[in-house]
Fold these 2 entries.
Entry 1:
Amino acid sequence: MELLDFFLRSREAQRALQQARARLYRVAYSWCHSAALADDLVQETLTKALRKSAQLRDPKARDAWLFTILANCYRDHFRRLREMEDIDEIEISHEATPETESSSAEIVSLVRAAIARLPQAQRQVVTLVDLEGFSYVEVTQILDVPIGTVMSRLCRARNAMRTMLLPDMQQHAVVNPSLPNIRRVK
Amino acid sequence: MSQEKCYSDEFLNAFVDDQIAAEEKSRAYIEFGQNEALNRQVCELRKLHDLVQLAYREPPTPPERAASGPSVRRARLRFAVAASVLLTLGILLGGLIRLPGPATTPQANTAPTVAPHRVVAAPHKAMAMTTAARKTNVAVAPAPERVPIASVAGAQSALAIPAAAAPATPVLVVAQSTSPGSVQAKVLVHLARDDAALLSQALDDIEGLLKHYRATHQTARVEVVVNGKGLELVRIDTSAFAARIQRLQRDYDNLTFAACQNTIDRLAREQGIIVRLLPGVITIDSGMAEIMRRQNQGWTYLQV
């Protein structure tokens, strides 16, 4: 029976990892804005998770554990690239993002571009909270930073996004003055 | 101090992210409702939250992974090769198991208990060893068809008690001196009647046969199977030829007398006779079965 339980747990863990793949990819993409890199990061994350699955004591903490591995993989990736730079201060250049100014008419592109402009540390916090709905405590565990740091980074990130996005969106709304403010719904 | 200053940006973010206690949140709701600026700030934060979710609701599909290229093809190739090898091995093994061979015959199965180096011997040799094993009660690992004999050996001690223990050494000498390739004649004589004249004539014929083989330097094996009324020939209390039978056994170590255990059991069951056999007479599970086995093994069958 113990052997059966072991296999069942193993199958359940593999299924959970498979289901988490899309979420990991979404967050990874929001961090690096490169589909290929995001996919590599997720692949590396899942490989490590499978290898270290015995370390996971509480299955309820699987999500936070997975995103912790993802954050470590992401950090290691940039350490390999630029060992002398503080990764918290790295900004992805605007040109490096898949979405450029030419496609700024679309809200999605605007938001992605705004997030891409954020420093990496702020970008990680805001995506973990907004995309995955992690609590601040969980984010502290994932990124291994104090909760005060999480709150301040989140605050700065949203202030920056508000500065970048809301005026643009208001301007975007003014671009079409011919559209009536009152629409017939039915 | 204005209400806007009472709530820091961190608090407003925590409020939007539902990270504050319920009691504090309900109090904040009331105050936000009374302050347009705070209300607008909260709305903007919620709007940003929704925008982030909208922006990454459908991230671009990742490019085709390199894993689906050569490495995967190599893995599939390895899997295919391994599966083919396993299939081939399975077929070969299955064929080997189904092939009948001398080592898998029942007679050969009994041989290792006596002489393991003769396991691969021809059936007639293995048969000789089996006979020797039966005579000396050394059939430790009986073949399927020999199982009754082994069990009969136990029954014999209870019902058909031999007058004396069978001489082991001469019998073993027979088995060892009979090389497998040199046995040129195998004769089974079936006795099922108790006519004294007939039995005497049969013993004469058997002795003449053995003399002939000895004179012509032929190696031969003669087995006399008695059942039914013929059992009286080898019973101590009824045999009219006890001395002659013992002399024949002493003179010809390639002669065997085998009594049918079914007959012995029937006598005990129906007539209450506890059969005691002459020394050196072995028991077999069934006379008829023994005849059929020997015929299948190429023995010559003679019915008296």
Entry 2:
Amino acid sequence: MLQAESKRYGERAIKWLLTLCALLSVLTTTAIIISLIGPTIGFFEIVPGSEFFFSFDWTPQFEPPSFGVLGVVAGTVNVVIWSMLVAIPLGLATAVYLSEYASPRARKTIKPVLEVLTGIPTVAIGFFAVSFILPEIIVPLWPGQFLGGANGKPFMALAASLGIALMVVPIIASLSDDAMRAVPRGLHDGAYALGATKVKVATRVIFPAALSGIVASVVLAISRAVGETMIVLLAAGNTPNPTLNPVESVQVMTSYIATTATGDIATGSIDYKSVFAVGAVLFVMTLIMNVVSIRLVHRYREVYE
Amino acid sequence: MTEAGGASAPRNRLAVAGARATTEAMLRNQPRGDVIRNTVFAGLLLLAVVIALAGLLALILQALTKGSSVISPDLVNNPPSTAFPDKAGYRPAIIGSLQLIAGVLLFIVPVGVGAALYLEEYADKSRWWNTVIEVNIQNLAAVPSIIYGILGLAFIVRGPLDLGFILVAGSLTLALLVLPMVIIASREALRAVPDSIRQGSLALGATEWQTIRRQVLPAAIPGIATGIILAVSRAIGETAPLLLVGATVFITFDPTPFGSDGYSAMPVQIFNYALRPQEEFQALAAAGIIVMLVVLLAMNSFAIWLRNRYEQRW
């Protein structure tokens, strides 16, 4: 092999500089983990793990305080379940429509519109959820006193759920559409040649073939919903309440962090440490989902690309 | 097909039309059940699309109807006020957001593009540490924004960097939050540049860096720019991490990058107005949302147009 005559120090320096840029991302993850671990260990020196992981009592402001994280995890589960019940069917139907049914022209308009709309800030969606979805849609449509009734409630989990659904439908639709379009044309044409109807091609051929990509998009959407803060903060109220009832007001992990760790919280206090303990739980939950989603995407890329 | 030219073109067209007519005639004889099922399914799909788009359209319309009454020069010229909501505005928040974004840009453009260049042009993909960096970036893109707030609070405001609750700390937190978006988009743009261009340049005697600077980077610029615009638009709209790193709400003066008296940002101010039940503040929140949506939707539309327009087919 030919060697350059000069040592090319400039070239090497550039390479190292670029490597540093890439390493910064690893550093960020390390910093996140370090900043979560320290105070979390401090937290468990005061609060026993059995209380934190197995109790539903989340009352940090009471005397004596109780730190049962399941109290806020339940709130998160409440909001996420109802949002996914709405967002998954809507998102997947939109994706199937875009990839199999839409004319090229309809697709060319709808897809960019959806992509632009993913840029709506969550504080705007939260405002919409609490000032429109709740009073104008949920309250009039809710069946009477079912589950305690929706009338006169200024906040509820369901309003946040529908707001989150609005946020993640474009994500599910766009990513699932990509996955379905990565299915080789041959599978599609082959099914038609065998006389399959359009419904069958879409639901029995394309959908299963793209399943890993579709599941990845749904898992990513769940991870986004679990980590969403502003919509829940504005619309779900902020009272710890371990229930899956959608018309109750709940506090979730993110809204606890956002309301407790504002500005002048004293470093080293039990409240300060509890923020990091809850943050650690949130980080681990979303990390697991993200890794699952990343691996699934890799799988369909390997199969079809 | 266009090269077929001459007399064969009309004949081809005739043959295609004939084939299509035959196929359509055959498909028309589908069993009734299938036809009904097809129609119902297509109808349901269309309904879902309409619901999703209508929900997002309703969001924009609601902000417009609620907030249009307070849209005036006061909205951007006046500081916030709890005592005189009819004169309150967003001035310090807008200035704060502009400074935050300037800082984000200064950070993400060199670091984001640099990391993407390393991963696409230099990294040996068979090495485990490069896989670690790659998966790590994909995961960072999906870490909840509030976790970045915790990182900012523990690492930038306090802890190792110890900057205090200043605007630069907020800027750095937002930059870390959107950095993975820039890296991922830039990598995709670099990957789309065909290898023949690199090999051609290297074969002519250019060094690796000359090849990247003069050939690869220029070809990838539209894709990289799209990623940067989308990242900045995300940073403008992000609220949760700023709540943790000291964006306070009622400052009535113009914030400065290193001022220790506090700073504000557009979404944080909107959030605070939205929390107040009085009609005037609700209208102010809606008006702020209009301002933000105009800016963000314009930026996103431009970014996506840019990507679709300059998506090169080599």
